[in-house]
Write a structure and sequence with these properties.
Elements: H1 2-20, E1 35-39, H2 51-59, E2 63-66, H3 81-93, E3 97-102, H4 119-123, E4 127-130, H5 135-142, E5 148-150, H6 162-173, E6 178-182, E7 190-200, H7 201-206, E8 220-226, H8 230-242, E9 251-258, H9 271-279, E10 286-287, E11 301-303, E12 306-311, E13 315-320
Parallel strand pairs: 1-2, 1-3, 3-4, 4-5, 7-8, 8-9, 9-10
Antiparallel strand pairs: 5-11, 6-13, 7-12, 12-13
Amino acid sequence: MFIKKIIALFFFFNLTILHSQTKLTMPEYLKKGDTVGILATARKIDLATLQPGIKLLESWGLKVVIGKTIGKEQNQLAGADWQRATDFQEMIDNPIIKAIWAAKGGYGTVRIVDRINFENFKKKPKWVIGFSDVTVLHSHINNMNIGTLHAIMTISAKSATPEAIETFRKALFGEKLEYHIPNHAFNKPGKATGELVGGNLSVLYSIQGSESAVDMNGKILFLEDLDEYLYHIDRMMMNLKRNGSLKGLKGIIIGGMTSMNDNDIPWGHDSLQIIQDIVKDLNIPVAYNFPAGHIKDNRTLILGKNVIFEVNSNETVLKFQ
């Protein structure tokens, strides 16, 4: 029995070391003259609405390819599942296209992710960009140890703040990206280094138990959400707590919790209070009101990349290594 325990410990520690040494791959950063593909993985959208985003890319010296899903519709969606999957597949397999920018979110990306063959993508990854429903792709791709950009979508270009747009440009072109965010009263101080993962809380909750579920162990988790009932926030956070996802985290970053709803009989706490109560026993740094999510000041995060995360009495610092 003693020998069996020694052997088990040996394999455990070796697997732990192997996991910690897993090499993270970042797609090639863009340069002037490169091509970005714009498509819809979920909700339908027309070409006219995307013009500000197209002009933004062109102002940076980039070329644009418009996906076949733009202008298509099947009820709420930008075409049938096979059409959206085919559009995405063609773009990740096209060597000319260096980045894929989601036109819009909504719901529907989870319906196509299992139709995609990522074998060529893993050999030659490219940036996949967006937020909200695109969290499905972030998590699925981050599980391949490949980075993605949690950033504004094409439809957001018209309303995004200059800061959000500039951080998107910096991330695309590989310029230094770090944040110094004012302190929030709920913040828990501390410092951690680790891989940044996460995205939309509702989407992360919905893909728990699937192939796309992100491994949170040893990671720094970013969360944001929109238009949810407050008790839903409590239910989703309790799920992450009870299934053990929060236990191995090195840190938590809470972004925009926007336009939340309540019942006629109030839940009694706002979204940040709900999260604060659920994570209060974790001995890790936690930062609130980070400028990312369903807000105009949606600053870019490089998911899958290692970061230095520090929360002190004055500010939250996030540096991408």
